[in-house]
Amino acid sequence: xxxxxxxxxxxxxxxxxxxxxxxxxxxxxxxxxxxxxxxxxxxxxxxxxxxxxxxxxxxxxxxxxxxxxxxxxxxxxxxxxxxxxxxxxxxxxxxxxxxxxxxxxxxxxxxxxxxxxxxxxxxxxxxxxxxxxxxxxxxxxxxxxx
Length: 146
Known about the structure:
The protein is α/β, with parallel strands linked by helices.
């Protein structure tokens, strides 16, 4: 299976009609965003309030349930105090203005990538060498002699 193309940032529910940079993928719906996250690992998920097929908080809860390690940011120009509390309780790393903060969002995604290493396709994480004792692999049935 060939390696999949990688992207730093996945955006859903935002008003961008086309990709803002080569590292950005834009999903038209929440369902499409979830499909893309099954195929690839993204450094940052940017969620806006205009998700076509599901409410914003339902989408975020679904992502957090299935991918709790996924970093995400909220991009909106209008946010109530209650919505901010909800976003923070769901682990948002930042709240950005939808129309003006795309360069900052790309910078955040790049810094996440530098700290965690390059994004890898889902299911393609490097496998470490199995632990060995005296040249023998450690398994449930093997207990080293004392």
